[in-house]
Amino acid sequence: MTSALLWTGCTKLTPYNGEFFDCECGDMTWASRTLNLRMAEVEALDSTTFRYHVIADLRTQAEVDAREDSRDLVLTLTTAVQGNSTALNLSSGDGRLTLQEVDAPGTGIDWGMAGASLNIAVEEDRHTLGLGSLTATLGGNTVSANGNFTFDLPD
Has residue 27 got a pLDDT over 60? Predict the structure, then answer.
């Protein structure tokens, strides 16, 4: 009877392979690696000033496969947008663009922005941000990045 209980009392489940979140809201290359995007969101601060938030997964594919804790890059741009498009060339230290690496469970490290060129296109139902080039530094590490992000506006 005991062996019958042991045999029927255990449930075998298929192993959890996990889900890898990708918002499909654009693409980003960071240090020659393509990153999965977790989020792209725009917030209207007033009629001409917007704050853009982009979150990308910085983990390597090996780290993702090993289910290591998340390590994200948070890019935040706050700027005025004039008309249907705006081009920006930001110099080192321009406070309109910030970069932060956030490691689980919430430790943040600021990257220095050493220069960036961006284009913002405004449409009725979305904003599109083209990151033509970005140079960022952390300690002795300097990386280049680029990308395109689509921010859908609420209906």
Answer: yes
